[in-house]
Write a structure and sequence with these properties.
Radius of gyration: 25 Å
Structural class: alpha/beta
Strand order of the largest sheet: 1-8-9-7-6-2-3-5-4
Number of strands: 9
Strand content: 5-15%
Helix content: 40-55%
Distance between the termini: 65 Å
Oligomer: single chain
Amino acid sequence: MGTSNVNEIWRPDIGAIDDLEAHLRAHASAPLLFVGSGMSRRYLKLPDWEGLLRQLASLTERPYGYFVTAGDGRPPAIATAIAEALREKWWADRKFEESRSEFGDSLGTREGPLKVEAAKLTRESLSNLPTEGDLAKEIEALKKSVVDAVITTNYDQLLETVFEDFRPYIGQDELLFSDPQGVGEIYKIHGDEAFPESMVLTEGDFGQFEERNPYLAAKLLTLFVEHPVIFLGYSLQDPDITSILVSFARVLTKENLQRLEGNLILVEWDADQRTPQITRGIVSSEGFSVPVKILRLASFIELFEMLGRLEHKFSAAVLRRLKHRVYELVRSNQPLDRLYVDNIENAPSQDFDVVIGVGMEARLSDQGYLGIQRRDLLLDVLNEHSAYNARRIVGGTLPALLRQTGLTPIYRYLREDGLLDANAELIPGTDVDAKIVNKVSLGDEPFHVPLSTAARARRIATESGNTLKGLIESQSCSVTLATAPVLPTDGFTLEELRRYLVETSEVFDRDITDRANWTRLVGRYDYLRFGLLGK
């Protein structure tokens, strides 16, 4: 594989960021982001691939060099060798007892233990997300970026944290065999740490990935043709980039490849690049060459702020779908903010923000049910009266949200739809989505604190008198949220717990760890109040 760059400024008369903004604004669709490991290293302090393999090798009895020779220096083969060495130890050593308890019954391959430990290392990195300084400012700017979707080869949850309302698709299968809309979605083509065995890590994984790569490339090509694509966290030599772009080159004519050039923008971080600069470049491999634009910069803040200034437009693919099946999205209860269209061609001529709906009642609550997010339900559970129709939540909203990572409250809506017995179990014969059935079968298990912090939480709870009141008076908000799930049910009243959760709800938008603990506590409240009916 080789690459070459032509050091020719794209348009030297104006700044590179202004130039790129003008280019993106001229496009019919908002951009896509294609995110690589460089972003996870920058914001989560995750190691590169070799660093991850070194950490995994340290869990075995052999040095990393042994596995390098066993795998002939090829990272996927090295990972396979480590997996074999780790497997027996993982199932027997007390050191991995917590991992076995969490994942042991769900593993289906010999390489599962390796992926579980890789997932744990990745998951723990989310605590490194910066909360102050320049990197934190970059993250805040990225959250406001106007993009249609995100594609990534990373396993971590950085992108779900940044784009909270986006729906993730995990692995090639979900992308290939589901019906992604191309808007508000994250495509995790190498898997996700929340589902360890989905992770593409070993030689066998990459072999299977390559077998399906032509199908994946065909799926992505439509997105690439209709959107500008901004690559973040990759280099020109990255095999994840070259393999996909070469797949495009195999099926496109030279003329169409040249037309694709303006859609491909690869961002390279360079600490010495005082002023952002755009040059032309070539990604070449296996005799194929794909032209790209290269944006070099020392800070991402200006780029991300520019992306936040874009206007969100709909791609041609989405408009084609809207013509046949239109959804109503109600953003507020003000009539001027709503639009009801029965056919795209018959849309009113007035200047509306776009929108949508055939076949659904106009009398929804303040939000269309397809637009309801996990955060909305978490807050709704704490209201005296729900703002939503329970049957619509159970039939449409919950199945969609339960495909995503994170805890989603379910018991209020199942109870109000008459589907639960007095023991928080589904009434026999109840016909609901399989994901709901699975969540109910877990009982209160999802609301337990992690084993790694349980002992500390129980100690703090005991020192605080095993009451919520004692925790609030003696501990910080963060410690209280992390500890309250272990309190006995006689240590608080449900109304006391509800009031505290309402008072602290702002943490959902403030801190990642506090958000997770607050969400877990809302889940416990939902289970006790609506599942067990306050028993």
